[in-house]
Amino acid sequence: MNQLGFPQGDPGQPFRKIALVNGSLGGTGINSPGQKGFTFDIRRYHNIDLWLFKIRYKTYTVSSARMYLTPSFGNSNTIFDAWFLGQSSRSKTATTPSSTSGYDVAPGGYFNTQGVLQKEGDGTIVSKLGINGGGIRFQANFYSVLPLHSFINTKSALAFTGSNQNLSENISTRNLVCTNETPFDSYFGSFYSNREHVELWQDAINWVTEEIGDNPQFPPANYSNVYPISGLDQFCTTATYSIPNLPSGATVTWTVNPLGSVSLSPSGNSVILSISSYNYTALTLTASISTSSCGTMPVNKQVIVGNPFYPYGELMVYGETNAQLSGLYNYNIPPYPGAISYHWEVFGGTGNPATIFQNGGNSANIMFNSVGYYGVLVEVTTPCGSIWLDPQQLDVYVSNNYLYKYYPNPANNELIIEYIPQDTTSSSTEYSTAKASLTNLPPRVIKLLNEKGETLRSSIPQSEESKTVLDIRAIPSGTYFLHITEGKETIKKQIIIQH
Are 101 and 168 in contact (CB under 8 A)? Predict the structure, then answer.
């Protein structure tokens, strides 16, 4: 078309030239360079009539051929090889220029050429006297068929005239009409999807319908990648945003959605946003870039204003509410918008009620050191300062129902599991009596498992053994699970190993 010319229409009423592109505008290729497309064999075929029986069978292969997709970016590979019985084999090698991907793997509308060949030729029986002739017969067979290949690549469909000859270039970041890299007045395609050659899909139909209705449409483009808005992702009082490197003669109109949360003070390619109310807002800042030749190009940026406040029931702390003494439990909260860091605290009780292993993020491991009622709370730091998520506090009751103590946790070289009296706060006489009863303990099985449920360490203590020591020096650092089975009941605890 570039050589023959495009239809121009009547004098004074020129045609509007538009293109629908089935290939990806964003550089998504099809298959892999050098991949085999199919294997084609011809085998000797016999058809023998023995009175009541008809015997048909294939014998030996007399010819075979293979087809491969083209290489990419200066590489070479065989694209065809074949041999015929009694003759030397033949092959064809292709080399692709270093600046581009191969033609049949580049982004484009695809077609099942290999499948058509297989459908038409697979199983066909021929002879030297024709398909229905007699004499020696042969049967054709296709297998290892790759169904698709790029048929009309994206740049060819757009009659691309730019200097970059890479057929896999990402051209979704610019308007080729504005850059004079296509003779079309507009075009439409998907950013990252390749479609069947001449396929129509709903978005394309809608686009063409607008064009037919005399409502010219602009080509789709990821303008935000070309003209990104520069500025903070979150601010507390005021912030400045701008778009550098605008096209010559371009103007910018700034808007925000929703309205009312901030005021705008625009000045050319920049704008100052000032908070109107101290309620949290997540807004979309839009810069509409207008040019005389390319129309309006919208560019968006998501901005958070202030610290969000969540009522009770939203953005809650999650974790165990009925904890066991000395047990290690994980508590977490959904990601807080704009959070820089999280700080976890346990309130209630006296002294040191809990040991907190801060994970630095929106979760923490907590081990409770005494029985009682506690509150697990988190403080979030954002660019607007710190905020305690008071309504999100999680109430936890810590009890000592089990007669087992396991320590240290986190553990390093060894993990100790000890069967102890249930009430260690009673008088010394009562404690001694309870201690003496530990000489005849019930049967129990102790296991240490990984996250896959595989047993790494196990022990079956004797009835007089109140303490079990597991050697964990060879176990890698990580999270594991301690199972103590006594009769039909199994106590399960999370163990951290840190070397």
Answer: yes
Give the distance from CA 266 to its chain's centroid.
37
Q: What is the mean pLDDT of the chain?
A: 83
Mean pLDDT for 91-101 is 96
Question: In 10 A of CB 450, how many CB atoms?
Answer: 14
For residue 359, what pLDDT is reported?
67
Domain match, 408 and 391 both: no
* pTM of the complete model: 0.52
Choose one of 280, 305, 330: the last residue of a domain: 305
* Dihedral sign of CA atoms 157, 163, 166, 171 in order: negative
Domain annotation covers residue 183 = no
- Domain range enclosing 454: 404-497
Per-residue pLDDT band at 321 (split at 50, 70, 90): confident
For residue 432, the model assigns a pLDDT of 34
> Domain of 295: which CATH number?
2.60.40.10
C-alpha distance from residue 80 to each of 34, 62, 83, 114, 354 (Å)? 10, 17, 11, 14, 72
Contact 328, 409 (CB under 8 A): yes
| Angstrom distance (rounded) from CA 293 to CA 263 | 31
Q: Evaluate if residue 1 carries a pLDDT over 60.
A: no
Instruction: Say yes or no: 269 and 232 in one domain.
Output: yes
Q: How confident is the model at residue 128, as a pLDDT?
A: 60
Q: How far is it, in rounded angstroms, from Cα 115 to Cα 112?
A: 5
For residues 434 and 383, state if they share a domain: no
Select from 364, 399, 434 the last residue of a domain.
399
For the chain, the domain total comes to 4
Q: Is there a domain that residue 257 lies in?
A: yes
Residue 76 included in any domain: yes
Do 416 and 393 have their domain in common? no
Flag whether 218 is in a domain.
no
Burial of residue 202 (CB within 10 Å: 0-12, 13-18, 19+) is exposed
With bands split at pLDDT 50, 70 and 90, how would you rate the model's confidence at 205? very high
pLDDT at residue 52, as a whole number: 55
- Residue 122 reports pLDDT greater than 80: yes
Judge if 261 and 349 occupy the same domain: no
Q: What is the pLDDT of residues 35-76, one digit of tens each?
A: 999 999 998 876 655 555 555 555 788 899 999 999 999 999
Q: How many CB atoms lie within 10 A of CB 145?
A: 18
* CA atoms of 287 and 269, how far apart (whole Å): 9
Asked if 42 and 129 sit in the same domain, the reply is: yes
B/e letters for 386-425, b = 16+ CB within 10 Å, e = fewer, are ebebeebbbebebebebbbebeebbbeeebebebbbeeee
Residue 433 shares a structural domain with residue 465: yes
Q: How far is CA 343 from CA 354, 363, 380, 382, in A?
A: 14, 9, 6, 12
Q: How many CB atoms lie within 10 A of CB 343?
A: 15
Strands 467-471 and 455-459: unpaired
Entry field: residues in the chain: 499
